[in-house]
Amino acid sequence: MTALIALSVTVGLLVWQTSSSFLVIVAGILFASFLDTCARALGSVMRVDRVWRLTLVVMILTMLIVLGIIWGAGKIPDQARVLMRVMDAQLDVLQQRLLSVGVDLFGPDGDRDFSRWFPDHNKWFGHAQTAVGTTSSILANTLVILFLGLLFSLIRKPIGRLPVVSQAPPRGRARAVLGEMGSILKSWRRSDRQNDD
Fold first, then answer.
1. Burial category of 196 from C-beta neighbours within 10 Å (exposed 0-12, middle 13-18, buried 19 and up)
2. How far apart are CA 180 and CA 1, in angstroms?
3. E strands along the chain, which residues?
4. Which among 4, 34, 62, 104 has the fewest CB atoms less than 10 Å away?
5. Are 141 and 25 in contact, with CB atoms under 8 Å apart?
6. Which CB contacts under 8 angstroms, 24+ apart, belong to 7-14?
7. What CA–CA distance (Å, rounded) separates 53 from 195?
8. Which region holds residue 170: left if phi is over 0, alpha if psi is between -120 and 50, else beta?
9. How many CA atoms lie within 13 A of 164 on its CB side?
10. CA dihedral sign, ordered 146, 151, 153, 154
């Protein structure tokens, strides 16, 4: 009984540690199904091979992403200037309100140096380092999902021919059920090929 509990705890910890990797793989599979669905939808419009339709879908998505990045990058300088103006205006309003009650926010010099208010610079850089690390992790996971999606969408092997399925010999009723499942998958595969052509 103790060995069973230890095994279940070990398996639980292993699953806990690898759950993010599993989620990235599942996201890649979902992206692959999205690409495959888009390629199938183009099948009714274009009578070309599935690989060419999939290539067209990937090229269209890539162009949309690049255009979005270019459009967003063009907006960043304007947004930064607007943010600086708003911050200056709000600091002026804050300074006027504090002066009306007798508090001099920036001291007699009047310069807007906030370094004296935040003596621990390492704390601020620690937050910046966390933000950069999180952003780079998100970008890396996105790239992995995109490449897994492309990989899974290019693989078109029927489930009945996978090596894992053929390793377990079916017995009794299981043989009949697996045989029926295999014939249904083959009929789906035939109809899928007819729709692709």
1. middle
2. 39
3. none
4. 4
5. no
6. none
7. 13
8. beta
9. 3
10. positive
Instruction: Identify the pLDDT of residue 68.
Output: 93
CA dihedral in degrees (89, 121, 78, 143; nearest 10)? Answer: -150
Residue 195 in this model has a pLDDT that exceeds 70: no
Q: Phi then psi for 136, rounded to 5 degrees?
A: -65, -35
Whats the size of the chain, residue-wise? 197
Which residue is associated with the tokens 């759950």?
Answer: 19
The whole-angstrom separation of Cα 184 and Cα 195 is 16
Task: Report pLDDT digits (tens) over 3-26.
Answer: 888 888 888 888 888 888 888 888
Alpha carbon distance, N-terminus to C-terminus of the chain: 58
In one-letter notation, the amino acid at residue 158 is: P
CB 186 within 8 A of CB 158: yes
The pTM score is 0.57
Q: Other CB atoms closer than 10 Å to residue 137's CB: what's the count? A: 11
pLDDT digits (tens, 9 = 90+) for 53-78: 989 999 999 999 999 999 988 898 89
**What is residue 168's DSSP assignment?**
S
